[in-house]
Design a protein that fits this description.
about 350 residues, alpha+beta, 2 domains, 4-stranded mixed β-sheet, 3-stranded mixed β-sheet, 7 helices, 13 strands, globular, disordered N terminus, disordered C terminus
């Protein structure tokens, strides 16, 4: 049975980005309600929220909870469309989530934190940077300044986790959402896939064990806020973590590029020479785009090696050896990028002599 599950997981990873749809077996009974939880504090600039959801493990015939998490978008300008369970042909099928330039249809499900059933109100891309709506996103406004505040009226105040069928959300894709379904898509990134695999392997994630109230409903990269974020009304609050869980959430050395902190955009330079400042900014953006592409290329290479290990049924020793190599590759890339950024900073335009910031 384990071999069948592994083959099934490999087939999911092998699905082309353009062919998203219903995947998996048909389930007669819909998933439990969405649990109530707090959104963890955003770990840094460039992370987007991906809400938790109920997945299904056919080997044990049970739903299990995949915690929500902050994840880096695979490309600038891309947003996450959550997956959802929908009724059809006498059973429930899961529609896989995806990354794309527009948020598509996700069943009208109210996942909270900006995903209230239609579109996304948690933030937006602007000029190559992601800006967070602090009315629905848990953001440290003391350290992050690319924020805005727009209140969102929630009309879908329900925790139902599936579309259609008895008791399901009655919602259908509109013309804009239908068009979004035909845009270029990217499947869940490595961090999301690993999150799902970890949840599947944890018996406490199963609905039959936690009775629809998972102990860990969202993953944190930092300690969560003590009180529920004011923008999460009607949205799922995180259960209190145990000491072992808190230790597990502590930062560790990155093994894969997807685990590195997002590349920060330096503060704008105001040397008094607008033309030089603009040119320097363009050079910064070009370097960041190049470094982001290098991260993605290395991540794809490492993902391919993971798939080979699965196909070859590699031993634990072999797997550990490959992971050590991945960690070394990732750290070398991070060091290279740090050196490049320092070199770039050394070319920063200097203020003109004589004082003042206005160009002469």
């Amino acid at each position: 049975m384990r071999i069948i599950r592994l083959l099934f997981a490999f087939l999911i990873l092998a699905i082309p980005a353009a062919s998203f749809g219903q995947i998996g077996v048909s389930i007669a009974v819909g998933p439990p309600e969405l649990p109530v939880y707090q959104q963890p504090l955003c770990p840094g600039d460039g992370y987007l929220w991906t809400p938790g959801y109920w997945a299904y493990d056919d080997s044990v015939s049970d739903y299990y909870w995949v915690p929500g998490a902050w994840v880096q978008a695979p490309e600038v300008g891309y947003l996450w469309t959550p997956g959802y369970w929908g009724w059809g042909n006498g059973g429930f099928l899961f529609n896989e989530g995806y990354w794309g330039p527009t948020v598509g249809f996700y069943g009208g499900i109210n996942y909270g934190f900006g995903y209230f059933g239609e579109g996304f109100g948690g933030g937006r891309w602007d000029g190559g940077h992601f800006f967070y709506n602090r009315s629905v996103s848990n953001i440290d406004i003391g350290s992050m300044h690319n924020v805005y505040n727009t209140r969102i009226e929630v009309n879908n105040d329900t925790r139902v986790s599936f579309n259609g069928g008895k008791g399901g959300v009655e919602a259908h894709a509109n013309a804009q959402q239908e068009a979004a379904a035909h845009e270029r898509h990217i499947p869940a990134v490595a961090a999301q896939s690993e999150q799902a695999r970890t949840a599947c392997a944890n018996p406490e994630s199963r609905a039959s064990v936690n009775r629809g109230k998972p102990a860990v409903a969202a993953e944190t990269a930092r300690p969560a806020a003590a009180e529920e974020h004011p923008g999460t009304t009607g949205a799922p609050a995180e259960a209190t973590r145990t000491e072992p869980e808190a230790k597990a959430a502590e930062p560790r050395a990155a093994v894969h590029p997807s685990e590195l902190a997002p590349i920060a955009h330096p503060a704008p330079v105001d040397s008094g020479n607008a033309k030089a400042d603009q040119k320097y900014r363009q050079q910064q953006d070009k370097l960041i785009a190049s470094q982001t592409q290098e991260r993605q290329n290395l991540q794809r290479k490492q993902d391919a090696e993971h798939q080979q290990l699965t196909q070859q049924k590699a031993t634990d020793a072999r797997t550990q050896q490959v992971e050590q190599k991945h960690a070394q590759q990732t750290q070398q890339l991070a060091q290279k990028h740090t050196a490049q950024q320092q070199q770039m900073q050394s070319r920063q335009p200097q203020p003109r002599s004589g004082g003042g910031n206005r160009p002469k």
